[in-house]
Amino acid sequence: MNKIIFFAQIRELIGVESIMFDAKTLSVSHLLDQLSQRGDKWLLALKEATVLCAVNQVLVDSQYIIQIGDEIAFFPPVTGG
């Protein structure tokens, strides 16, 4: 099982802080597709072009393959100054 954590506007929109999900051997892109099927709010919050992903606290791209036990975090792009 994998723990998936949602941050900032994503968490606020879907109303969930984290879930457990069997994401083994899925790419980040495929995981986003599966999660987006949970409803309109999920689809809106998890648009691949507007979400960043970290696996085990390291930023990864959408083609990264998730392994059993990985911790996955989704968050919106951040700007600083």
According to CATH, the fold-level topology is Ubiquitin-like (UB roll)
Query: What is the radius of gyration computed over CA atoms, rounded to a whole number of angstroms?
Result: 12 Å
Would you tell me the structural class of the helices and strands? Answer: alpha+beta
Q: What strand order characterises the main sheet?
A: 2-1-5-3-4
- Tally of discrete structural domains: 1
What's the count of strands?
Answer: 5
**Quick check: average pLDDT?**
93
What's the CATH H-level superfamily name? Answer: Beta-grasp domain
What is the global morphology?
globular
Please tally the helical runs, counting DSSP H or I stretches of 4 or more residues: 3
Helix content: 25-40%
Can you put this structure into words, describing what you see?
The protein has 3 helices and 5 strands; from the N terminus they run E-H-E-H-H-E-E-E. It is α+β, with helices and mostly antiparallel strands and 81 residues long. The protein has a single domain, classed as Ubiquitin-like (UB roll). It has a 5-stranded mixed β-sheet. The longest helix is centred in the middle third of the chain and has 9 residues. The N and C termini lie far apart (38 Å). The model has no long low-confidence stretch (mean pLDDT 93).
Secondary structure topology:
Layout (H helix, E strand, L loop, with lengths): L1 E5 L1 H7 L3 E4 L6 H9 L3 H6 L6 E4 L2 E3 L10 E5 L6
Any descriptors?
single chain, 81 residues, alpha+beta, Ubiquitin-like (UB roll), 5-stranded mixed beta sheet, 26% strand, globular
